[in-house]
Structure formats: C-alpha cells, structure tokens
From TrEMBL:
Highest rank taxon of the organism: Bacteria
Keywords: ATP-binding, Cell inner membrane, Cell membrane, Lipoprotein, Membrane, Nucleotide-binding, Transport
Designated name of the protein: Lipoprotein-releasing system ATP-binding protein
GO cellular component: membrane protein complex; plasma membrane
Length: 225
C-alpha cells in the first residue's frame, strides 16, 4: 500500500545563472503505509529540498509526487495546499510551537482549522500527548517545557489531523544524545500506532538503524545505505 511516491524528481536552483546547481537528479521513492524510513545525507546534499518537494511545499522541475495515488505535481497551489493540510505532517529540528498557547492548545488548533469539533479535538490531543508521556504538561506553554517535551508536543501537533505521511527534518537534532534517544523512541511509538508512512532525516546512524530502511541522498539520487 504505497502512500507516498516520488518518480524521477529533479530540481535545480539559480537556473541559467552562474550559481546554477542541480540538487536532485532523478529521485525515486516509494513509501508504504506503516513504514519508517531514515534519510541520511551530508549537509548540502539536498535533504531539505527533497522533504519540501515530498511535502508539497516546493515544486520539482520534473517528476511526479503522488500521495495516495494522486499526482499532485503540477496541480494548482490551492489544490496542493489542501492536500498538504490533509495528508502531510511536518516536524523540524526546532519545535515551531505557538508561544502564546499551551501544549494542549497547540495540538488542538490545527484540528479546529480542519473543522474538527472542540471536544473531539481536545480528546484526540490529550490522547496523543499521553502516548508520548507529556499529558501532565498539557497546560504549560512551550517556554515552560524542556527541549525534549517541546519536540514531543510538536510530534503530536504533526499527527493531530491524522496525516498519511510524516516528514521529519532532524527531529531530535537539537537535543543532547540521551534525550534524543528517548524522544526518538517516543516518535517511533507514535508512528507505529498509526500506519503512517514516515520519512525521517537524521545524522544519527544509530537512530537511523532503528528504522525499517535507510536511504542515502548522494549525488542527487537516493541509494540504499
Ligand atoms: P540539505 O538540507 O541537505 O543541507 P538543501 O536542500 O538545503 O540541503 O540544499 C541543497 C543545495 O541547494 C545547497 O547547495 C544549497 O545551497 C542549495 N539551495 C537550497 N535552497 C536554495 C535556494 N532557495 N536557492 C539557491 N540555492 C539553494
Ligand atoms: P496553515 O496555514 O494551516 O499553517 P499551511 O498549508 O501553511 O497550513 O501548512 C501546512 C503544513 O506545512 C504545516 O505543518 C506547516 O508547518 C508546514 N509549512 C507551511 N509552510 C511552510 C514553509 N514555508 N516551510 C516549512 N513548512 C511549512
């Protein structure tokens, strides 16, 4: 059951200028429901570019991005935004939680924006927070949480609207090694409970080895690592 499919993705920056650089040279990827795949790449290899294209934030020059069997490359921005909000969850190195809202509200708000009723949204948010061990921190604002807790909340927010695909860019890259291990474990648990397809960029080979597959982005293509 392929959820995310990338076919022949190419991307250049600074086209026609002296600084022209071809970052992606024909990326193929098939991610199945329930699969967790690590993406490893040296800095500058094009990892963020690839994640943004896979998450419909950026357009490739060539190739197809299919989510749930629908080719979304070349569709209107509006259509792609709708698909992104419904089907894609993002996690970054920094949590990007809203500072004025508490942990619970940060997980509730994206659901309200998607038309979920308040009591439903709150129930789901508490359930997610509980699964990553921060339910008792629900009424704290991000600034009152530790770095590991902030990332756990960010994972819950990313999954709040039950996306089909999770894209993570160094989700534990900001944390010290011990915390990183625990928080990464929490993310894996959360994903395992869902059937979500996850592509997780990391520099940490030990964490990468805990996933189903490891892919390396090298010279603009993905190879098995
Ligand atoms: P990574 O995430 O692996 O570090 P990126 O996808 O951010 O790599 O960048 C890959 C290459 O593309 C780098 O050489 C970077 O300088 C270049 N690049 C990224 N974004 C742009 C942009 N908007 N304009 C021009 N060059 C870019
Ligand atoms: P909203 O307007 O409801 O925040 P968007 O369609 O703008 O929804 O964003 C959907 C998802 O894409 C969110 O998870 C958001 O964090 C992410 N996102 C949106 N724009 C960017 C961007 N420029 N860079 C990185 N992530 C983004």
């Amino acid at each position: 059951d392929v959820v995310l499919s990338l076919k022949g993705i190419t991307k250049r920056y600074n086209k026609g200028l002296p600084g022209e650089v071809q970052v992606l040279r024909g990326v193929d990827l098939q991610l199945s429901s329930g699969e967790m795949v690590a993406l490893v790449a040296p800095s500058g290899a094009g990892k963020s570019t690839l994640l943004h294209i896979a998450g419909l934030l950026d357009q490739p020059d060539e190739g197809a991005v299919e989510i749930g069997g629908e080719d979304l490359s070349g569709r209107s921005d509006r259509r792609r935004t709708v698909a992104r909000r419904r089907d894609v969850g993002f996690v970054y190195q920094f949590h990007h939680l809203l500072p004025e809202f508490n942990a619970l509200e940060n997980v509730v708000l994206p659901q309200l924006a998607n038309g979920v009723a308040g009591n439903e949204a709150e129930k789901r948010a508490m359930e997610l927070l509980g699964r990553v061990g921060v339910a008792e921190r629900a009424t704290h604002r991000p600034a009152a949480l530790s770095g590991g807790e902030q990332q756990r909340v960010a994972f819950c927010r990313a999954l709040a609207n039950k996306p089909r695909v999770l894209l993570a860019d160094e989700p534990t890259g900001n944390l010290d090694p011990g915390t990183s291990d625990q928080v990464f474990g929490a993310l894996m648990e959360l994903v395992r409970g869902t059937g979500l397809a996850a592509l997780i960029a990391t520099h940490n080979m030990e964490l990468a080895a805990r996933m189903d597959r490891v892919l390396r982005l090298q010279d603009g293509v993905l190879v098995d690592a």
